[in-house]
Structures are given as C-alpha cells and as structure tokens.
Amino acid sequence: MLFLFPSEFPSCKAQDPEQTVVMVAICDFYRKKIKIRVPPPLLDWKTVNEKMPWNIVLLLGGGFALAKGSEDSGLSIWLGEKLTPLESIPPAAIALVLCLLIATFTECTSNVATTTLFLPILASMARAIQLNPLYIMLPCTLSASLAFMLPVATPPNAIAFAYGQLKVVDMAKAGFLLNIIGVLVITLSINTWGYYMFNLHAFPSWANSTVKP
C-alpha cells in the first residue's frame, strides 16, 4: 500500500509563474494546459531493495515453506509414525532427548527455523504414541532459544564475538554449560509444575485426529 500513497498532496502549477490562484482555477476549469506535479510515493522499490534484510526474509520464508511442504505432503506424519518405537521410553526421557536435539540443532540455524521445522514432526510423533503434544512441544520450543555456543547461532552472539575479542572455543565452553543447565531446568519444569498447570497427564481431544469436528 505504501507504493500507492503519495508522500504529499499533489499540487498544480501554472506555466506562467506570475499567474494568480484564481487564474489557475479558471485555467483548470476550462481545461487549459496546466503543469501537474505528481509527488513521489511514500515508498519506492529502490528503498525497499536497499533497506530490506533479504537474508532474514529468505530464511524465515524458507523455514515456513519447508514446514508447510512437510505438512501438506504427509512427511511430518510419516516421520512421526517412524518415531513410534519411542513409546517404550519414559516420557521424561523422551522430552530430555528431544530438548538436547533441538538445543544442538539451533546452534546452526535460527530458533524460528528450528521450531518451524521440528514442531509439526513432534506433534505428529506425540499423536502417534498417544502423548500430549504440549508435553513435547513446549520444552522443545523453549530449547530452541538455547543458542549460546556458536557465533552463527543468533545475531547477539555474532555481535559479542565480533566486538568482544572472543574465540569460538571460549564461546563453546561457556555455551555448552549454559545449554546443559537450560535443558535440565526446562525438563524439570515441564515434569513438575508444568505437568499439572497444562494438564499434561491427559491426551487432549483436539490432538486426536480421528475425532470428527
């Protein structure tokens, strides 16, 4: 819409600079030649092309497209069904392993791309093993923000690495400890007060794909 709105109100200017406002109105009334100055729009493509962070747009758009494609093609459901052997593992261990997996994967990609890719798969897996999807998706979503080890994990890490005279090894050592503490706190919370706050002991009806609307 900003490409359509003018930056200022259009104005009319007669060819004769000494012509009065009344004469301009008369000339306009009789459809004489009047120079109309068209103001530029509020936004033009040159500004958008120079200022738009296209890398972020492509990253987020690619993540959303990948998640949508996995969902529409049935890939998420297929991968979820392939993880049904995890049904024999205690739910607390499943949450811990998946949180560690997400925390490791998010060191290489953004948290938005990680959650967009993994959450549909985790939801399908939880439905396949008859486990409350929130029990898996909530801690994994929080674990996607545990990007402490590598400079490429998140923009604040890159800024600190560039201006703090740090080495990758230094960030990896400190970030590894923070990741472990974060995963333990998240899994402990979801298995204590979070278990009862979100009623995770019951399989919700909205997660049952066999229920007719």
TrEMBL record:
Locations listed in the record: Membrane
GO molecular function list: alpha-ketoglutarate transmembrane transporter activity; fumarate transmembrane transporter activity; sodium:dicarboxylate symporter activity; succinate transmembrane transporter activity
Membrane protein topology class: Multi-pass membrane protein
Keyword Ion transport among record annotations: yes
BP-aspect Gene Ontology terms: cellular response to lithium ion
Keywords: Ion transport, Membrane, Sodium, Sodium transport, Transmembrane, Transmembrane helix, Transport
Name of the protein: Citrate transporter-like domain-containing protein
Organism listed in the record: Aquarana catesbeiana (American bullfrog)
Upper taxonomic lineage: Eukaryota, Metazoa, Chordata, Craniata, Vertebrata
